[in-house]
Amino acid sequence: MIPELGHFALACAVALAFAQGVVGIFGPSLRDARALYATPLLALSHFAAIGLAFLALVWSGVVSDFTVENIADFSSSAVPLLYRITGVWGNHDGSILLWCLILSLCGAAVAVAGGGLPASLRARVLGVLGLVSGGFLLFTLTVSNPFTRIWPPPLEGAGINPILQDPGLAFHPPVLYTGYVGFSVAFAFAIAALIEGRIDAAWGRWVRPWALISWCFLTGGIALGSWWSYYTLGWGGYWFWDPVENAALLPWLTGTALLHCAIVVEKRESLKAWTVLLAIATFSLSLSGTFLVRSGILNSVHSFAAAPDQGLFILALLGLTIGGSLLLFAIRAPVLAATGIYAPISRESALVLNNVFLCAIAAVVFTGTLYPPFANLLFGIQLSVGAPFFNQTVLPLTAPIILAMGVGPMLPWKRADLLPALHRLWLAGAAALLVFAVLTASRHVIAALGLAGGAWVVVSALTDLFRRRFSTLSRSALGAALGHIGFGVSVLGIAGMTLAVQKVVVLQPGQSTTLGGYTWTLQDIHDAPGPNYTQRVADIVLSEDGAPFLTLHPSRRFFAAQKVITNDAAIHTNGFQDIYAVFADEPATGGAELRLNRHPMAPEIWFGGLIMALGGFVSLSDRRLRVGAPARRRHKPEGVVA
Amino acid sequence: MLKPKRRRLYLVIVSGLCLSAAVGLTLAAFSSSLTYFLSPRQVAAQHPAPGMSFRLGGIVQAGTVQTTLAGQTPTTHFAVTDGRAAVPVVFTGVLPDLFREGQGVVAIGAMSGDGVFHADEVLAKHGAAYMPKDVEQSLKEAGKWDPKFGPPPPASTWNDMKVGS
Question: Tell me, what's the ipTM?
Answer without folding.
Answer: 0.73
